[in-house]
Amino acid sequence: MPKHKPLVSFSTDFGPGNRGHGVMKAVILERCPDAEVVELATNVEGFDLRDGAKNFEGLAWLPKGIHICVVDPGVGTQRRGLIIETGRGDYLVGPDNGVLLPAASFVGDVKRAWHITNQEYLRQPVSHVFHGRDVFASVAGHLAAGVKPQEIGVEVGAGSLAPAPYPEACAENGRISAEIIHVNAFGNVSFNIRNEALHQLVSLDDLITLTKGKQKIALPYKKTFGEVAAGTGLIFDGDFGRVEAALNQGSLAAKAGLKTADRVTLAKC
Fold first, then answer.
1. Which end of the chain offers a freer environment for a tag, N or C, measured as fewer CB atoms within 10 Å?
2. The S-adenosyl-l-methionine hydroxide adenosyltransferase C-terminal domain covers which part of the protein (predicted)?
3. Among 36, 87, 34, 35, which residue's Cα sits nearest to residue 60?
4. Model-level pTM greater than 0.90?
């Protein structure tokens, strides 16, 4: 069988078409010419750790590999750079600000972690404001080429890592207290609720009350958009593992005034 090329993905809040992506790719390929480099998400909302973490969770639908996330408002400060090994065998590379952790939970959680310390494996000189290129892309390229993480950094305990930007919501006393972690281009909203957590609370076709403050919205739990009339809302199992709410052929976020970081409650009517 042909040998698989090492896969390296990257996700950033730089915005589509930013030259930083091309430079990061070149740094990776300079260190590992055989690497297959793919963009996972490059349109993360600027500085938004929730949105970055939610988008980065998409790596669970990629093959095992080395995955970079650069949503890094603290770049150049004392915050650590990390390599995380997951239970599936991936390496996640990025800042110690919690943005890597939700994705890790989708691929076997954090198995081991290292604080990036060895200057030998960084692109020199290291910019104070572009660790995506000089630290994370460089480290990812070396990992793809077979360098071991213990050569690049010092092992640290999983308990010492900065917390994730959102917790895992779960059903309790017949309701789920959650938050909105992403709003997509269609105005669909994603919650920090795993699909399987909602299954513990409701069944298909049940009516769910979404509460935000004094606002209450009744939404049916359906499989897909076309099961409700155009302009009608619904809740469904999202295609990347988390529960979503939407308006068929419209924007639920705009209609209901929902946005990232809003706290909501879901309960069966």
1. N
2. 178-265
3. 87
4. yes
